[in-house]
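Mods, move this if it's the wrong board.
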Amino acid sequence: MSAAMTEQGRTLLGVGCGLAAGALWGLVFLAPELASDFTPLQLAAGRYLAYGAFAVTLLAPRWRTVTAAVGRREWVALSWLSLLGNTLYYVLLAAAVQSGGVAMASVVVGFLPVAVTVIGSRDHGAVPLARLLPSLVLGAAGVACIGWQSMSAAEPGSQARAAFGLLCAIGALASWTAYAVVNGRWLAKLTQVSAPDWSLLTGVATGAQALLLAIPAALIGAKAHDAAGWGRFLAVSAGVAILASIVGNAFWNRASRLLPLTLVGQMILFETLFALLYGFLWEQRLPTSLELVAIGLMTASVLICVSAHRSPEQPHAQDQRA
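Not the wrong board. Structure tokens:
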């Protein structure tokens, strides 16, 4: 019985960490709107330069201790993870939000749980895909409801811009799916590095990439801005770097160690829910009936997935990750 309680505690703590990460990551969808007069390249460069600076500052007192377990292979992995989950993902997401809106971008990224869960179902010890189908169907139905709402509200004459935003959102979906899967597997085997430290090391690698990104960001599509505009840009970059990149990633890495990949994938639904909530607040409106139905379906999807992982028929799922 104590073992079952320990297993249940791990699951609940992991879900709590996933919820916290989603609440912080949802802010990312607002950033391109808060600084809409800056390009996606500038937004990504600003955010990740700040992320890298904060990460180096926090790691500096413990640099030798933390990096003692990180060799060339790990740094290469961190570079790829930084590209997939941060630099490339955020450039594509910012372009999607600015071209198609917060709702459309969150709709497409809302398919992440489906993609990650399907891939994770092939891992050893994972819950069989057949038992996850009810959760996946509900999640997909929720995303479809929001998609229908978003498409029906599209303004006439903006089809080309919306199509470009959609393509960028699909690219962001693919990029972050790859990151979620690979990052989860690295965390599972690199137990000598804590989840928060792994997040900070990712920040160091991302900051290095942002230094290179800053050059084309300053040249391609750049406009003149006044002091107030630059102040807003710096505030948005620093805020998103601290809340989403540092704190949010730390919560996500903790969840990735506590939960199997199939359940971690479902936690991304929280990002969609919070992104929609922040979008409603930004637009100063209440959700429509269809949007409320979608939110209910997504919430039910997560709860059913959690229930599937707590089933006594899966006694080895977490043992394989301990």
